[in-house]
Amino acid sequence: MIESHNLNRMGWQPFFQQQLSLEEWENCRPFRVVEQYRSELRLESGSQHISLPILASMPAVVVGDWLLLDEQQRYVRLLERKTTFARKAAGSKVERQLISSNVDTAFILCSMNEDFNLNRIERFLAVVNEAGAEPVVLLSKCDLAEDPESYVNKVRGLDSYLAVEALNCTSEQSLKVIEHWIKPANTIAVLGSSGVGKSSLINTLAGEQQQSTSAIREDDSKGRHTTTKRSLIKLNNGALIIDTPGMREIQLADCKEGIVSTFADIEKFAEACRFQDCQHHNEPGCAVLAAVEQGELQSRRLDNYLKLLREESLNSASLAQRRASDKALGKFYKRTMVDSNKLKGR
Ligand SMILES: Nc1nc2c(ncn2[C@@H]2O[C@H](COP(=O)(O)OP(=O)(O)OP(=O)(O)O)[C@@H](O)[C@H]2O)c(=O)[nH]1
Ligand SMILES: [Mg+2]
Ligand SMILES: [Zn+2]
Fold it and tell me: Which of 4, 38, 255, 340 is 20 to 30 Å from 275 at the Cα level?
Protein backbone atom coordinates (compact mmCIF):
# COMPACT_ATOMS: atom_id res chain seq x y z
CA MET A 1 0.00 0.00 0.00
CA ILE A 2 1.32 3.47 -0.93
CA GLU A 3 1.81 6.19 1.69
CA SER A 4 0.56 9.21 -0.21
CA HIS A 5 2.02 11.86 2.10
CA ASN A 6 5.49 10.72 1.02
CA LEU A 7 4.49 10.94 -2.63
CA ASN A 8 3.22 14.47 -2.06
CA ARG A 9 6.78 15.40 -1.13
CA MET A 10 7.77 14.38 -4.66
CA GLY A 11 5.11 16.50 -6.37
CA TRP A 12 2.38 13.86 -6.67
CA GLN A 13 -0.88 15.38 -7.92
CA PRO A 14 -4.46 14.20 -8.65
CA PHE A 15 -3.56 14.15 -12.37
CA PHE A 16 -1.24 11.18 -11.69
CA GLN A 17 -3.37 9.58 -8.98
CA GLN A 18 -6.32 9.18 -11.36
CA GLN A 19 -4.16 7.14 -13.77
CA LEU A 20 -3.78 4.27 -11.28
CA SER A 21 -6.25 1.42 -11.06
CA LEU A 22 -7.24 0.16 -7.64
CA GLU A 23 -5.14 -2.93 -8.24
CA GLU A 24 -2.09 -0.87 -9.16
CA TRP A 25 -2.64 1.27 -6.10
CA GLU A 26 -2.52 -1.95 -4.02
CA ASN A 27 0.39 -3.68 -5.75
CA CYS A 28 2.59 -1.02 -7.30
CA ARG A 29 4.42 2.07 -6.24
CA PRO A 30 5.00 5.30 -8.19
CA PHE A 31 8.57 6.64 -8.28
CA ARG A 32 9.75 9.95 -9.68
CA VAL A 33 12.82 10.20 -11.88
CA VAL A 34 15.20 12.55 -10.05
CA GLU A 35 18.38 11.97 -12.07
CA GLN A 36 19.31 10.20 -15.26
CA TYR A 37 22.55 8.63 -16.43
CA ARG A 38 23.43 6.82 -19.62
CA SER A 39 22.37 3.38 -18.42
CA GLU A 40 20.39 3.97 -15.24
CA LEU A 41 17.86 6.20 -13.59
CA ARG A 42 17.76 7.44 -10.01
CA LEU A 43 14.25 7.25 -8.66
CA GLU A 44 12.62 8.47 -5.48
CA SER A 45 9.26 7.70 -3.91
CA GLY A 46 9.52 10.10 -0.99
CA SER A 47 10.75 7.44 1.43
CA GLN A 48 12.94 5.33 -0.87
CA HIS A 49 15.79 6.08 -3.26
CA ILE A 50 16.61 3.45 -5.86
CA SER A 51 18.54 2.98 -9.11
CA LEU A 52 16.79 1.42 -12.07
CA PRO A 53 18.70 0.13 -15.10
CA ILE A 54 17.38 1.57 -18.38
CA LEU A 55 16.00 -1.28 -20.49
CA ALA A 56 15.53 -1.22 -24.24
CA SER A 57 11.86 -2.08 -23.70
CA MET A 58 11.24 1.14 -21.75
CA PRO A 59 10.06 4.32 -23.47
CA ALA A 60 12.33 7.40 -23.40
CA VAL A 61 12.25 8.67 -19.82
CA VAL A 62 13.32 12.07 -18.50
CA VAL A 63 13.80 13.81 -15.14
CA GLY A 64 10.38 14.69 -13.74
CA ASP A 65 8.66 11.55 -15.05
CA TRP A 66 6.59 9.26 -12.83
CA LEU A 67 7.21 5.51 -13.25
CA LEU A 68 5.14 2.73 -11.81
CA LEU A 69 7.16 -0.17 -10.37
CA ASP A 70 5.89 -3.49 -9.04
CA GLU A 71 6.64 -4.95 -5.61
CA GLN A 72 9.95 -6.36 -6.88
CA GLN A 73 10.80 -2.86 -8.10
CA ARG A 74 10.52 -3.85 -11.74
CA TYR A 75 9.37 -1.33 -14.31
CA VAL A 76 5.64 -1.53 -15.05
CA ARG A 77 4.81 1.64 -16.97
CA LEU A 78 5.39 5.35 -17.47
CA LEU A 79 2.54 7.53 -16.23
CA GLU A 80 1.09 9.99 -18.70
CA ARG A 81 2.92 13.33 -18.54
CA LYS A 82 1.16 16.48 -17.45
CA THR A 83 3.65 18.60 -19.40
CA THR A 84 6.64 17.80 -21.61
CA PHE A 85 9.56 20.07 -22.42
CA ALA A 86 11.36 19.05 -25.59
CA ARG A 87 13.57 20.44 -28.31
CA LYS A 88 15.25 19.23 -31.46
CA ALA A 89 18.61 17.74 -30.46
CA ALA A 90 21.48 20.18 -30.93
CA GLY A 91 23.59 20.11 -34.09
CA SER A 92 22.75 18.00 -37.09
CA LYS A 93 21.04 15.18 -35.18
CA VAL A 94 17.46 14.67 -36.34
CA GLU A 95 15.95 13.74 -33.01
CA ARG A 96 13.42 15.09 -30.55
CA GLN A 97 15.11 15.43 -27.19
CA LEU A 98 13.24 15.57 -23.91
CA ILE A 99 14.39 18.24 -21.45
CA SER A 100 12.12 17.54 -18.47
CA SER A 101 8.54 16.61 -17.72
CA ASN A 102 5.66 17.23 -15.34
CA VAL A 103 6.78 20.80 -14.81
CA ASP A 104 4.19 23.28 -13.49
CA THR A 105 6.26 26.47 -13.55
CA ALA A 106 9.27 27.32 -15.71
CA PHE A 107 11.77 29.92 -14.57
CA ILE A 108 13.36 31.36 -17.71
CA LEU A 109 16.60 32.81 -16.42
CA CYS A 110 18.50 35.50 -18.28
CA SER A 111 21.18 37.69 -16.76
CA MET A 112 21.53 41.45 -17.00
CA ASN A 113 24.78 41.42 -18.94
CA GLU A 114 25.88 40.48 -22.45
CA ASP A 115 23.71 37.38 -22.14
CA PHE A 116 20.51 39.47 -22.10
CA ASN A 117 18.65 38.70 -25.29
CA LEU A 118 14.95 39.17 -26.02
CA ASN A 119 15.05 36.75 -28.98
CA ARG A 120 16.29 33.99 -26.70
CA ILE A 121 13.64 34.75 -24.08
CA GLU A 122 10.94 34.48 -26.78
CA ARG A 123 12.43 31.14 -27.88
CA PHE A 124 12.21 29.74 -24.34
CA LEU A 125 8.70 31.15 -23.98
CA ALA A 126 7.63 29.20 -27.07
CA VAL A 127 8.87 25.93 -25.51
CA VAL A 128 7.21 26.65 -22.15
CA ASN A 129 3.92 27.73 -23.73
CA GLU A 130 3.92 24.65 -25.94
CA ALA A 131 4.31 22.48 -22.84
CA GLY A 132 1.46 24.30 -21.10
CA ALA A 133 3.55 25.26 -18.07
CA GLU A 134 3.49 28.71 -16.47
CA PRO A 135 6.43 30.86 -17.64
CA VAL A 136 8.19 33.29 -15.29
CA VAL A 137 11.06 35.37 -16.66
CA LEU A 138 13.76 35.97 -14.06
CA LEU A 139 16.45 38.56 -14.78
CA SER A 140 19.46 37.62 -12.69
CA LYS A 141 22.54 39.57 -11.55
CA CYS A 142 20.47 42.68 -10.83
CA ASP A 143 23.11 43.52 -8.22
CA LEU A 144 25.66 44.02 -11.02
CA ALA A 145 23.49 46.02 -13.41
CA GLU A 146 23.48 49.80 -13.53
CA ASP A 147 19.84 50.13 -14.45
CA PRO A 148 17.99 46.86 -13.63
CA GLU A 149 14.57 48.41 -14.21
CA SER A 150 15.39 49.05 -17.89
CA TYR A 151 15.87 45.29 -18.47
CA VAL A 152 12.63 44.48 -16.68
CA ASN A 153 10.78 47.02 -18.82
CA LYS A 154 12.18 45.54 -22.02
CA VAL A 155 10.80 42.10 -21.11
CA ARG A 156 7.48 43.56 -19.93
CA GLY A 157 7.27 45.17 -23.37
CA LEU A 158 6.95 41.68 -24.91
CA ASP A 159 3.68 40.96 -23.13
CA SER A 160 2.14 42.95 -20.34
CA TYR A 161 0.70 39.79 -18.74
CA LEU A 162 4.08 38.07 -18.49
CA ALA A 163 5.52 37.56 -14.99
CA VAL A 164 8.96 39.21 -14.86
CA GLU A 165 11.19 39.65 -11.81
CA ALA A 166 14.69 40.98 -11.26
CA LEU A 167 16.84 39.19 -8.69
CA ASN A 168 20.23 38.33 -7.33
CA CYS A 169 20.44 34.52 -7.34
CA THR A 170 23.00 34.50 -4.56
CA SER A 171 20.94 36.49 -2.04
CA GLU A 172 18.20 34.90 0.03
CA GLN A 173 16.62 38.28 0.66
CA SER A 174 16.39 38.95 -3.06
CA LEU A 175 14.49 35.70 -3.73
CA LYS A 176 11.42 36.96 -1.86
CA VAL A 177 10.06 38.09 -5.25
CA ILE A 178 9.65 34.46 -6.35
CA GLU A 179 8.19 33.11 -3.07
CA HIS A 180 4.78 32.87 -4.71
CA TRP A 181 5.93 30.01 -6.97
CA ILE A 182 7.88 28.07 -4.34
CA LYS A 183 4.89 26.15 -2.99
CA PRO A 184 4.27 22.52 -1.96
CA ALA A 185 3.98 19.97 -4.79
CA ASN A 186 4.80 22.62 -7.42
CA THR A 187 7.48 21.41 -9.83
CA ILE A 188 9.65 24.17 -11.24
CA ALA A 189 12.19 23.85 -14.08
CA VAL A 190 15.00 26.38 -14.39
CA LEU A 191 16.02 27.11 -17.97
CA GLY A 192 18.64 29.44 -19.43
CA SER A 193 22.14 29.79 -20.87
CA SER A 194 25.22 28.61 -19.01
CA GLY A 195 26.37 30.99 -16.30
CA VAL A 196 23.10 32.86 -15.74
CA GLY A 197 22.77 31.53 -12.18
CA LYS A 198 20.43 28.52 -12.39
CA SER A 199 22.36 26.42 -9.88
CA SER A 200 23.07 29.45 -7.68
CA LEU A 201 19.34 30.15 -7.49
CA ILE A 202 18.65 26.55 -6.46
CA ASN A 203 21.41 26.58 -3.84
CA THR A 204 20.06 29.79 -2.31
CA LEU A 205 16.52 28.35 -2.24
CA ALA A 206 17.77 25.08 -0.72
CA GLY A 207 19.85 26.98 1.82
CA GLU A 208 22.87 24.82 1.04
CA GLN A 209 25.36 24.00 -1.71
CA GLN A 210 23.32 21.33 -3.51
CA GLN A 211 24.63 22.07 -6.99
CA SER A 212 28.13 23.13 -8.11
CA THR A 213 28.49 26.60 -9.54
CA SER A 214 31.43 28.41 -11.10
CA ALA A 215 32.34 31.89 -12.21
CA ILE A 216 31.63 32.97 -15.76
CA ARG A 217 34.42 34.03 -18.15
CA GLU A 218 35.17 37.70 -17.74
CA ASP A 219 35.85 38.50 -21.37
CA ASP A 220 32.48 37.49 -22.81
CA SER A 221 30.23 36.85 -19.77
CA LYS A 222 29.67 33.27 -20.92
CA GLY A 223 29.31 30.39 -18.49
CA ARG A 224 31.40 27.25 -18.36
CA HIS A 225 28.70 24.59 -18.50
CA THR A 226 29.21 23.71 -14.87
CA THR A 227 25.98 21.69 -14.57
CA THR A 228 26.17 18.67 -16.87
CA LYS A 229 23.12 16.63 -15.90
CA ARG A 230 19.54 17.31 -15.04
CA SER A 231 18.40 16.73 -11.50
CA LEU A 232 15.26 17.22 -9.48
CA ILE A 233 15.80 18.70 -6.02
CA LYS A 234 13.36 18.80 -3.11
CA LEU A 235 13.06 22.11 -1.29
CA ASN A 236 12.15 22.30 2.38
CA ASN A 237 8.65 23.68 1.93
CA GLY A 238 7.63 20.86 -0.45
CA ALA A 239 8.37 22.53 -3.78
CA LEU A 240 10.50 20.67 -6.34
CA ILE A 241 13.01 22.28 -8.65
CA ILE A 242 14.83 20.88 -11.69
CA ASP A 243 18.33 22.11 -12.53
CA THR A 244 19.32 21.75 -16.18
CA PRO A 245 22.63 22.22 -17.99
CA GLY A 246 22.86 25.61 -19.74
CA MET A 247 21.13 25.69 -23.10
CA ARG A 248 22.21 28.45 -25.39
CA GLU A 249 20.70 26.91 -28.47
CA ILE A 250 17.25 25.54 -28.04
CA GLN A 251 16.10 24.41 -31.49
CA LEU A 252 12.32 24.47 -31.83
CA ALA A 253 10.42 21.49 -33.20
CA ASP A 254 6.80 20.35 -32.87
CA CYS A 255 6.16 23.68 -31.22
CA LYS A 256 3.83 25.64 -33.52
CA GLU A 257 1.16 26.24 -30.88
CA GLY A 258 3.80 27.47 -28.46
CA ILE A 259 5.03 30.05 -30.99
CA VAL A 260 1.51 31.15 -31.81
CA SER A 261 0.65 31.75 -28.16
CA THR A 262 3.98 33.47 -27.44
CA PHE A 263 3.32 35.90 -30.28
CA ALA A 264 -0.42 36.32 -29.71
CA ASP A 265 -0.11 40.07 -30.44
CA ILE A 266 1.21 39.40 -33.97
CA GLU A 267 -1.44 36.74 -34.55
CA LYS A 268 -4.04 39.34 -33.55
CA PHE A 269 -2.69 41.99 -35.96
CA ALA A 270 -2.57 39.33 -38.71
CA GLU A 271 -6.33 38.83 -38.50
CA ALA A 272 -6.68 42.17 -40.31
CA CYS A 273 -4.24 41.34 -43.16
CA ARG A 274 -5.88 41.53 -46.61
CA PHE A 275 -4.74 38.02 -47.57
CA GLN A 276 -5.51 35.12 -45.32
CA ASP A 277 -2.19 33.45 -46.14
CA CYS A 278 -0.21 36.70 -45.75
CA GLN A 279 3.44 36.03 -44.91
CA HIS A 280 3.95 39.59 -43.61
CA HIS A 281 6.92 40.20 -45.91
CA ASN A 282 5.76 42.86 -48.37
CA GLU A 283 2.19 41.94 -49.27
CA PRO A 284 -0.26 44.81 -49.85
CA GLY A 285 -2.73 45.35 -47.02
CA CYS A 286 -0.49 43.63 -44.44
CA ALA A 287 -1.74 44.72 -41.02
CA VAL A 288 1.34 43.32 -39.26
CA LEU A 289 3.74 45.47 -41.29
CA ALA A 290 1.40 48.41 -40.72
CA ALA A 291 1.69 47.80 -36.96
CA VAL A 292 5.50 47.92 -37.26
CA GLU A 293 5.23 51.12 -39.30
CA GLN A 294 3.03 52.72 -36.65
CA GLY A 295 5.35 51.74 -33.83
CA GLU A 296 2.87 49.28 -32.29
CA LEU A 297 5.12 46.28 -32.94
CA GLN A 298 8.91 46.03 -32.84
CA SER A 299 10.46 44.89 -36.11
CA ARG A 300 12.88 42.77 -34.02
CA ARG A 301 9.91 40.87 -32.62
CA LEU A 302 8.35 40.34 -36.04
CA ASP A 303 11.69 39.12 -37.45
CA ASN A 304 12.13 36.68 -34.58
CA TYR A 305 8.56 35.41 -34.95
CA LEU A 306 9.09 34.70 -38.66
CA LYS A 307 12.49 33.13 -37.97
CA LEU A 308 11.14 30.82 -35.25
CA LEU A 309 8.20 29.78 -37.46
CA ARG A 310 10.58 28.91 -40.32
CA GLU A 311 12.92 27.01 -38.02
CA GLU A 312 10.04 25.16 -36.37
CA SER A 313 8.49 24.02 -39.62
CA LEU A 314 11.86 22.93 -41.05
CA ASN A 315 12.75 20.94 -37.91
CA SER A 316 9.26 19.45 -37.57
CA ALA A 317 9.35 18.36 -41.21
CA SER A 318 12.70 16.61 -40.81
CA LEU A 319 11.50 14.92 -37.61
CA ALA A 320 8.34 13.75 -39.37
CA GLN A 321 10.41 12.45 -42.29
CA ARG A 322 12.70 10.62 -39.88
CA ARG A 323 9.72 9.04 -38.10
CA ALA A 324 8.23 7.97 -41.42
CA SER A 325 11.47 6.41 -42.63
CA ASP A 326 12.00 4.67 -39.26
CA LYS A 327 8.51 3.24 -39.59
CA ALA A 328 9.13 2.12 -43.17
CA LEU A 329 12.40 0.52 -42.10
CA GLY A 330 10.58 -1.27 -39.27
CA LYS A 331 8.03 -2.63 -41.74
CA PHE A 332 10.80 -3.70 -44.10
CA TYR A 333 12.55 -5.67 -41.33
CA LYS A 334 9.28 -7.26 -40.29
CA ARG A 335 8.50 -8.30 -43.88
CA THR A 336 12.01 -9.68 -44.35
CA MET A 337 11.63 -11.71 -41.16
CA VAL A 338 8.27 -13.10 -42.26
CA ASP A 339 9.68 -13.94 -45.71
CA SER A 340 12.74 -15.68 -44.32
CA ASN A 341 10.60 -17.63 -41.85
CA LYS A 342 8.40 -18.72 -44.75
CA LEU A 343 11.49 -19.87 -46.63
CA LYS A 344 12.72 -21.75 -43.58
CA GLY A 345 9.32 -23.39 -43.21
CA ARG A 346 9.42 -24.74 -46.77
N1 LIG B 1 26.50 38.87 -8.58
C2 LIG B 1 25.78 37.83 -8.95
N3 LIG B 1 26.40 36.70 -9.31
C4 LIG B 1 25.63 35.65 -9.69
C5 LIG B 1 24.22 35.72 -9.71
N6 LIG B 1 23.75 34.53 -10.15
C7 LIG B 1 24.83 33.74 -10.37
N8 LIG B 1 25.97 34.41 -10.09
C9 LIG B 1 27.34 33.92 -10.28
O10 LIG B 1 27.48 33.51 -11.64
C11 LIG B 1 28.29 32.37 -11.77
C12 LIG B 1 27.57 31.28 -12.55
O13 LIG B 1 26.47 30.81 -11.80
P14 LIG B 1 25.89 29.31 -11.89
O15 LIG B 1 24.81 29.22 -10.88
O16 LIG B 1 26.99 28.33 -11.87
O17 LIG B 1 25.25 29.35 -13.36
P18 LIG B 1 24.43 28.20 -14.11
O19 LIG B 1 23.29 28.90 -14.80
O20 LIG B 1 24.06 27.12 -13.19
O21 LIG B 1 25.47 27.70 -15.21
P22 LIG B 1 25.61 26.23 -15.91
O23 LIG B 1 25.54 25.20 -14.85
O24 LIG B 1 26.93 26.29 -16.59
O25 LIG B 1 24.48 26.14 -16.90
C26 LIG B 1 28.66 31.96 -10.34
O27 LIG B 1 29.94 32.49 -10.07
C28 LIG B 1 27.62 32.65 -9.49
O29 LIG B 1 28.09 32.98 -8.20
C30 LIG B 1 23.60 36.94 -9.35
O31 LIG B 1 22.37 37.11 -9.38
N32 LIG B 1 24.43 37.95 -8.96
MG1 LIG C 1 24.46 25.11 -13.21
ZN1 LIG D 1 0.40 40.33 -43.10
Answer: 255
